[in-house]
């Protein structure tokens, strides 16, 4: 039995933001990369993070202020902090602008996609839920669903977010590889998301494979895209493959995959940091690092 440490809380939050910061310059196509080349630093010259970290901060602050998931509060925080320079997904941007104009999140979401978004935008902020619900699996599953639907009502987006929040809980408890794969598989089966079951089997095969695993194999078998199905198990795979290796080796591998490099690095970074703690992260400075530190501490101290 492992006692979860303060540095694991700090590592999860800092690993999330650092993954975002390091992956963002390589995200998407040439246009997005050129834009990030111009926008990617604060006036003080610090690296900037994107929507992934912004929404994680919103979720942490809402959880701390309201002592649980409050969907209306979350919708307002997400909408008020939306800014086009943070690289939000196209549907997420539309949704948050509608909420900001006063539309209810439920009807705004349905107006954009009747079944909700299946992007990875709920999964990228899901690690912080495990910090708030570190012990109870059922409670974490419910909290993940309730916080996801505000922006991502599609069952695949919720399943992806839950895979990430549950895996973060497992990393906090420093469970072994087989346990984490078994826990993930049982959730994928419960949720009925066959696409995730298939990819989890592929991830297991890649994890136990002897010799080098090349980026094109990971990309083809697990995905590198902006949907939950094409990114969540990629991030879990990277975190498990590199969890006893340096953080930067994992990030380099995530960047080699191309596609949604910031979000895959965000999720993998949070998982890695939850396992290894903040002292093992590279000592790089970035936007609002001290504020993120304070938020992680505040969540730890209420445990
Ligand atoms: P989102 O909710 O906009 O979803 C991403 C995209 O998936 C949408 O814009 C649609 O194209 C498509 N999509 C989602 N749901 C449906 C549906 N039900 N029917 C048809 N199409 C659908 O964005 P998000 O909040 O999930 O974020 C996803 C990613 O976008 C994150 O990586 C984020 O960082 C951002 N982003 C990605 C890139 C990139 O090129 N990789 C660039 C900038 C921003
Ligand atoms: Mg992003
Ligand atoms: Mg909030
Ligand atoms: Mg992204």
**What's the alpha carbon Rg, rounded to whole Å?**
17 Å
Residue fraction in strands: under 5%
Question: How many strands, what sense, and barrel or not for the largest sheet?
Answer: none
Number of helices: 16
Amino- and carboxy-terminal Cα gap: 17 Å
* Low-confidence sequence ranges: none
The residue fraction in helices comes out at 55-70%
Overall average pLDDT: 97
Structural class: mainly alpha
Q: Hetero groups bound? A: alpha-Diphosphopyridine nucleotide, magnesium ion
Shape: globular
Query: What is the H/E string?
Result: HHHHHHHHHHHHHHHH
| Number of strand elements | 0
Provide key terms for this protein.
0% strand; 303 residues; mainly alpha; globular; binds alpha-Diphosphopyridine nucleotide; binds magnesium ion; 65% helix
Describe the structure.
- With 303 residues, this protein is mainly α.
- Helices cover 65% and strands 0% of the residues.
- It has 16 helices and no strands.
- Helix 1 runs antiparallel to helix 15, helix 8 crosses helix 9 and helix 9 packs parallel to helix 15.
- The protein is globular.
- The model has no long low-confidence stretch (mean pLDDT 97).
- The protein binds alpha-Diphosphopyridine nucleotide (8NA) and magnesium ion (MG) (3 copies).
- One magnesium ion (MG) binds next to helix 3 and helix 15.
């Amino acid at each position: 039995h492992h006692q979860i440490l303060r540095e694991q809380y700090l590592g999860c939050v800092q690993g999330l933001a650092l993954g975002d910061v390091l992956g963002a310059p390589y995200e998407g196509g040439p246009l997005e990369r050129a834009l990030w080349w111009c926008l990617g630093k604060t006036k003080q010259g610090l690296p900037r993070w994107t929507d992934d970290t912004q929404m994680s901060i919103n979720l942490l602050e809402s959880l701390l202020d309201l002592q649980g998931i409050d969907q209306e509060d979350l919708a307002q925080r997400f909408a008020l902090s939306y800014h086009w320079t943070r690289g939000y997904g196209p549907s997420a941007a539309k949704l948050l602008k509608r909420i900001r104009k006063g539309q209810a999140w439920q009807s705004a979401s349905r107006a954009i996609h009747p079944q909700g978004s299946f992007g990875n935008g709920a999964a990228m902020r899901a690690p912080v839920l495990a910090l708030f619900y570190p012990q109870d699996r059922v409670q974490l599953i419910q909290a993940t669903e309730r916080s996801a639907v505000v922006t991502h009502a599609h069952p695949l987006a919720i399943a992806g977010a839950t895979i990430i929040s549950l895996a973060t809980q497992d990393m906090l408890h420093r469970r072994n590889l087989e346990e984490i794969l078994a826990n993930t598989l049982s959730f994928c089966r419960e949720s009925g998301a066959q696409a995730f079951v298939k990819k989890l089997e592929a991830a297991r095969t890649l994890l136990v494979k002897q010799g080098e695993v090349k980026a094109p194999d990971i990309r083809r078998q697990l995905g590198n895209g902006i949907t939950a199905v094409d990114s969540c198990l990629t991030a879990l795979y990277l975190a498990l493959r590199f969890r006893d290796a340096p953080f930067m080796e994992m990030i380099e591998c995530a960047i080699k995959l191309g596609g949604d490099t910031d979000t895959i690095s965000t999720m993998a970074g949070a998982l890695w940091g939850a396992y290894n703690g903040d002292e093992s992260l590279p000592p790089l400075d970035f936007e609002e690092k001290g504020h993120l530190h304070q938020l992680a501490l505040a969540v730890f101290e209420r445990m």
